[in-house]
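Encoded backbone
================
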Amino acid sequence: MSAAEAAERAGFDLSLVDESLRCSPKERARQHQAGLEVALELETIGRQLRDRTQSTSTAIFRR
């Protein structure tokens, strides 16, 4: 069994790898950067929501 066959049997979608390899290295770097920016934005939003939830919980307990 080839590595590709083993990967497919394990559930990996190799079409995504093929699609990525059709892009230039510059385009893959651009896509990576865009994904990283989204992930960092989501992390910031999550942190803000947690902080807001904690301050709301603290205010409720102080009453």
